[in-house]
C-alpha cells in the first residue's frame, strides 16, 4: 500500500489536537470526577457522612449521564458547550462534552476504589482521633492510591476513544481525520495511519498507568 | 493483685441497639462496668455476645443508644466531635487484624497518631525510634506491613497505639489472628507495657488462655449482659455461670469425664485447690503422714494465673472416715479449698 493520500503535517496537527483534548479533558475529569466519587463514597451507607438522600440523587444523575451514548450526549449538550467555550467545534468545543461524559464514569471508579480501602484502617484512624478531613487526606487518598491510578488510566483510555468519536461533530483530532478522509473519501491509508496512532497512544497510556500502579502497590 | 484502686473507666447503664430491618436488636443491654487504674481487665464472651460492641463503646467507635461513658473523669458522650478526637488520643487501641496503613512504612504507621497530634518532625522521629525499640522492631522501620509477620504487625499496632502516651489501651481480640507462640509473645509485651508504663488495659477475647495469662479481673459476657465479674482467680476456680464454666473447661487439663472417674473409685474423692505459694508446699503429704489414710492422685494441674501459681488436684483418700475428716479440716486450715466429689 502506498501512503499517497497521507499528509503528514495534517496528521501531526491532528495528533496534537487529540493529545490536547485528552490531556485537558482528563485534567478536568479527574478533579470533578474525584470530588463526585468522594461524595458518593462518603455519603453511602455506613460511611463517614452517610446521607442516603444525597447519595441517591447523585447516584441517579450519574447513572443517567452514563447511560446516554457519547455521540448523543455530545449533541444534546451543545448549547451548554457553546455557553462555556463559545463554540461547539474544534478542540475547545469538544472538551466540555468529554468532561461531562467522563466525569461520572471516573466518579464511579473512584467510589469503587475508595470502597476497597479496609474499613478497619478507617476505624483505627477514628480511634486515634483523626478528623473526617484527616481520614480523607491521610487514609483514603493514600490507601486507595493504586486503585485511583488504575481508574485514571482506564478513564484516559476511554477519553482517547471519545475524542475520536467527537470527529462526528467536527471535533478535530485523529478521529476527525479518519472520518473525513478515511470514511468519507475512501482514503484507507489515512484511516490506517490514524488508527495505528490511536492504538499507539492507548498502549502508551495503559503501560504508563500499569507501571504507576505497580510502583505504588504494597500488597 | 490490685484491690480497690482508682477508677479510670466507668460505663453506666450502656445499651446499644441496632436496627435490623424494622426490628431493633440489643447488642448490649444495660451494662455497667468499672475499670480500675492500672489493671488489666478482660472481657470474655462468644462471638456475637456483644463484647466487641462494649469495647467500642469505651472510645465511642460505637455510640451507645443510652448510658454514659466516663474515661479519666470525662463523660465522652457529652463532647463535641473535636473534643472527642482529642480525648481519643489518650485511648490507644489495637485490633485483631492490625488495621495498619498498607501503603505506609512501619515508621509512617507509628508516626500517624503523632502527626494527628501535630508534633514536629524531630519530635516524631525521636518518639518513633523509642517506640520501635519498646516493641522490639528496631531495623524494621522502613518495611511495609506486607513484609512483616503477624506478630510483627501487631507490634507495630501496639507501638502506634502507645505513641501519644495513652492512659488506656483497648485490645480488640489482639491475639486471635496469631499462632500460640506469637500470642504468648504479644501477651507478655502487653503485660510488660502495663507494668512498666502503668497503662490500664481493657481486652476482649474468646480465649480463656488470654484471660488466665495476663488479666487481673474478668467480666464474662453473654447475650449482651455481664453474667459474671470478679478477680480472675476467683472466676477461674469457682465459675458460677454455665458460660463461664464452659470457658474454664476449655483450658482445664482434665482428662476425660470426672463423674465417671469418681464413680469407678472405691474411696472418697476430693477436689483440692491451692493458690499462691501454697502451691509448692508439701501440704497434702504433711496432712496425711501421721494417719493411716492413703491417697491416690487421680488428676492434677499446676499452673500459673498471671504471676500467681495455682493448682488443682483430684485426690482419692482411702481410710477411716474420722481420719479423712481430720485431714480435710487440716487442709482447710492451711488455706486450701476442698470440695468432696463423691
TrEMBL record, chain A:
Its main location: membrane. CDD domains: TM_PBP2. PROSITE patterns: ABC_TM1. Residues 15-209 form the ABC transmembrane type-1 domain. It is found in: Cell membrane. The chain crosses the membrane at residues 22-42, 54-77, 83-106, 148-170, 190-213. It is a multi-pass membrane protein. GO terms for cellular component: plasma membrane. GO terms for biological process: D-methionine transmembrane transport. Keywords: Cell membrane, Membrane, Transmembrane, Transmembrane helix, Transport. It holds the Pfam family BPD_transp_1. Belongs to the binding-protein-dependent transport system permease family. CysTW subfamily. This is D-methionine transport system permease protein. It comes from Paenibacillus phyllosphaerae.
Amino acid at each position: 500500500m502506498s501512503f499517497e493520500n497521507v499528509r503528514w503535517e495534517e496528521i501531526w496537527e491532528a495528533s496534537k489536537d487529540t493529545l490536547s483534548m485528552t490531556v485537558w479533558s482528563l485534567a478536568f475529569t479527574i478533579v470533578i470526577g474525584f470530588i463526585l466519587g468522594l461524595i458518593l463514597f462518603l455519603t453511602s451507607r455506613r460511611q463517614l457522612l452517610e446521607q442516603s438522600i444525597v447519595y441517591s440523587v447523585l447516584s441517579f444523575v450519574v447513572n443517567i449521564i452514563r447511560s446516554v451514548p457519547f455521540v448523543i450526549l455530545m449533541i444534546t449538550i451543545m448549547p451548554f458547550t457553546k455557553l462555556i467555550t463559545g463554540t461547539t467545534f474544534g478542540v475547545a468545543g469538544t472538551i466540555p462534552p468529554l468532561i461531562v461524559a467522563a466525569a461520572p464514569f471516573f466518579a464511579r471508579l473512584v467510589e469503587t476504589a475508595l470502597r476497597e480501602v479496609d474499613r478497619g484502617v478507617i476505624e483505627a484512624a477514628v480511634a486515634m482521633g483523626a478528623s473526617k478531613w484527616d481520614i480523607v487526606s491521610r487514609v483514603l487518598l493514600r490507601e486507595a492510591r493504586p486503585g485511583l491510578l488504575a481508574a485514571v488510566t482506564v478513564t484516559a483510555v476511554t477519553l482517547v476513544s471519545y475524542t475520536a468519536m467527537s470527529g462526528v461533530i467536527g471535533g478535530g483530532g485523529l478521529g476527525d481525520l479518519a472520518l473525513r478522509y478515511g470514511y468519507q473519501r475512501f482514503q484507507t491509508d489515512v484511516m490506517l495511519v490514524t488508527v495505528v496512532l490511536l492504538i499507539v497512544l492507548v498502549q502508551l497510556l495503559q503501560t504508563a498507568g500499569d507501571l504507576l500502579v505497580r510502583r505504588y502497590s504494597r500488597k | 493483685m490490685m484491690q480497690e484502686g482508682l477508677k479510670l473507666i466507668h460505663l453506666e447503664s450502656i445499651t446499644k441497639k441496632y436496627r435490623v430491618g424494622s426490628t431493633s436488636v440489643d447488642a448490649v443491654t444495660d451494662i455497667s462496668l468499672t475499670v480500675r487504674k492500672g489493671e488489666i481487665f478482660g472481657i470474655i464472651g462468644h462471638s456475637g455476645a456483644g463484647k466487641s460492641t462494649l469495647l467500642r463503646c469505651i472510645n465511642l467507635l460505637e455510640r451507645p443508644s443510652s448510658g454514659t461513658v466516663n474515661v479519666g473523669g470525662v463523660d465522652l458522650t457529652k463532647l463535641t466531635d473535636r473534643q472527642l478526637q482529642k480525648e481519643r488520643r489518650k485511648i490507644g487501641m489495637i485490633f485483631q487484624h492490625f488495621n495498619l496503613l498498607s501503603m505506609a512504612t512501619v515508621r509512617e504507621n507509628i508516626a500517624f497518631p503523632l502527626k494527628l497530634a501535630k508534633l514536629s518532625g524531630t519530635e516524631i522521629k525521636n518518639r518513633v525510634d523509642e517506640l520501635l525499640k519498646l516493641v522490639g522492631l528496631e531495623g524494621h522501620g522502613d518495611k511495609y506491613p506486607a513484609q512483616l509477620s503477624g506478630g510483627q504487625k501487631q507490634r507495630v499496632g501496639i507501638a502506634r497505639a502507645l505513641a501519644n502516651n495513652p492512659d488506656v489501651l483497648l485490645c480488640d481480640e489482639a491475639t486471635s489472628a496469631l499462632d500460640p507462640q506469637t500470642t504468648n509473645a504479644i501477651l507478655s509485651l502487653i503485660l510488660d507495657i502495663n507494668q512498666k508504663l502503668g497503662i490500664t488495659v481493657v481486652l476482649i477475647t474468646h480465649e480463656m488462655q488470654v484471660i488466665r495469662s495476663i488479666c487481673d479481673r474478668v467480666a464474662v459476657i453473654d447475650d449482651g449482659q455481664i453474667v459474671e465479674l470478679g478477680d480472675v482467680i476467683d472466676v477461674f476456680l469457682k465459675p458460677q455461670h454455665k458460660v463461664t464454666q464452659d470457658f474454664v473447661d476449655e483450658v482445664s487439663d482434665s482428662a476425660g469425664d470426672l463423674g465417671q472417674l469418681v464413680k469407678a473409685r472405691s474411696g472418697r474423692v476430693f477436689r483440692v485447690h491451692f493458690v499462691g505459694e501454697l502451691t509448692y508446699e508439701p501440704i497434702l503429704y504433711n496432712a496425711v503422714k501421721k494417719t493411716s489414710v492413703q491417697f491416690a492422685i487421680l488428676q492434677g494441674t499446676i499452673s500459673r494465673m498471671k504471676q500467681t501459681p495455682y493448682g488443682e488436684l483430684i485426690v482419692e483418700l482411702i481410710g477411716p472416715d474420722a481420719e479423712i475428716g481430720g485431714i480435710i479440716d487440716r487442709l482447710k486450715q492451711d488455706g486450701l479449698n476442698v470440695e468432696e466429689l463423691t
